[in-house]
From TrEMBL:
It comes from Sphingomonas humi. Keywords: Membrane, Signal. This is Outer membrane protein assembly factor BamE. PROSITE patterns: PROKAR_LIPOPROTEIN. Residues 27-101 form the Outer membrane protein assembly factor BamE domain.
Amino acid sequence: MNRIVFFVSIAALGLGGCAGYRESRGFIMDEQLAQAVQVGTDNKTSVEKTLGRPTYTGQFSDNEWYYVSRQTSTFAFRAPKVTEQQILRIKFDQGGNVSAIERTGKEKIASIDPYGKTTPTLGRKKSFFEEFFGNIGTVGGVGPTSGGQPGQ
C-alpha cells in the first residue's frame, strides 16, 4: 500500500511540471479607452493621455503608432501558441491629428518554416580537425591584422 501511495505521489509531482500556463504580453487593451480615440478629434497628445505610449512606432515614420496585445498559452515545454492578438494601429497626419484607426488580429502573424537543418555556404567544407587545429601558428603571424610587413 505504501508503494502505491509513493508512486502516485511521484507521478503527481512529475506531471505537475507539465502544467500549462497563459501569459499576456504587450499592451493591455481596454476597449472603452480604445473606442474613445476618434479620427479628426484626437491628436498625439490626447491619444498618449488616453492609451499611454505605444508598443512601437512606425519604422519609416513616427506618424504611425501600434498598440499590440497578445495572449499566449503553453503546455509543458512546448513553444507558446498565440491564442489571441489585437493590434491597434493609429495613423496621424503631418499636423499630429488622428487620420485613421485600424484593428487587426491573429491573421497578421507570419509563420516562417526554415528550410533544412543547415545553411548552405560557399567555399570548402572543413573537417572537424581542420576547424580545430587550423589556426595553430597564425596568431601573431604576418598578415593584414598583425601590422607587420613580410620579410621583416
